[in-house]
Amino acid sequence: MADHQRIHPAVDVEAPPPSPTVPPMVPHGHQSSSTITQKEMKERGIGTSPVDQQHRPPLGLRPSQVARAIPVIPAEPEQPEKRSSSSTYCRCMCWALSILLLVLITIGATGGILYIIFRPKLPSYSVNSLKISDLRLKLDMSLYAEFDVKITANNPNKKIGIYYEQGGRLSVWYINMRLCEGALPKFYQGHQNKTVINVVLTGQNQYGNTLMNALQQQQQTGSIPLDLKVDAPVAIQVGTLKLRKVRILGQCLLVVDSLTANNFISIKANNCRFRLKP
């Protein structure tokens, strides 16, 4: 009897071998971390806080899935301690302002005491006489003028002396046009002293023809306005202390009757104002 032919199932040699299934090893009486009950989580204190309840992952997830499901809350960066440089700067500013305030108070108090003791007053000036030595047109049609002015300077202070320094000027103007000017002498004026100053003023104006016609027309009225300006650098002496230089700026508005050469001119009005300029 012929052997029965056995038919064996064909095996696919190219297919990968099946992987053996190994059951997870879980100790007896313990549950997997993926199957922790809600009661055990409550006993362990997991998910009891409001933050945990808000971000609590659903049950039944693997550890890797749980890690991905829980949002990561970044920790707040630690604030670096503020340096003490700002406080040092504030202290320095406070000290500087305090010192400045103290200096200002000291200066103010010293000035007040000096004012009470010395009672400073501005010097006064008056024009005694004005004489025209020369007033004529030259060949180039410029106007040449030469005036002799006599001024009285009065120092009313009892304890303050005045040093008139080099560089003082005195000038005569007519309608914003300078006729002549001269230098003030250098001298010292003592306490409550009156000093008469003689100044020779000379000058030449290029608009001679126009200026001479205007002066002749004004002379017919018998009132010619002139402006005498003073610029005198002085140093004040308080007691034995000589202070820094200041400038005395003055202006005298004069009205004279005529501008006839070689004659004394009658001064009909004399209004002077003076001020100090540091």
Identify the CATH class of the domain at 124-277: Mainly Beta
Structural class: alpha+beta
Residue stretches low in confidence (pLDDT < 50, at least 5 long) are 1-5, 10-15, 21-35
What is the radius of gyration? 54 Å
Major β-sheet, in short? 7 strands, antiparallel
What is the CA-CA span between the terminal residues? 150 Å
The mean pLDDT is 79
Membrane topology: Single-pass membrane protein
Domain Late embryogenesis abundant protein LEA-2 subgroup: 151-246
Keywords: Membrane, Transmembrane, Transmembrane helix
Organism: Rosa chinensis
Question: Can you walk me through this structure?
Answer:
Keywords: Membrane, Transmembrane, Transmembrane helix. One of its GO terms (biological process) is defense response to other organism. Residues 151-246 form the Late embryogenesis abundant protein LEA-2 subgroup domain. It is a single chain. With 278 residues, the chain is an alpha+beta fold. The chain has a domain at 124-277: Immunoglobulin-like (Sandwich), CATH 2.60.40. Helix content is 23%, strand content 38%. The protein has helices spanning 38-44, 50-54, 63-69, 85-118, 208-219; strands at residues 124-137, 143-155, 160-164, 169-174, 177-183, 187-189, 193-205, 224-238, 241-256, 263-265, 267-277. Strands 3, 4, 5, 6, 8, 9 and 11 form a seven-stranded antiparallel beta sheet that branches. Strands 7-2-1-10 form a four-stranded antiparallel beta sheet. β1 (124-137) and β2 (143-155) form a beta hairpin. The model is unreliable at 1-5, 10-15 and 21-35 (pLDDT under 50).
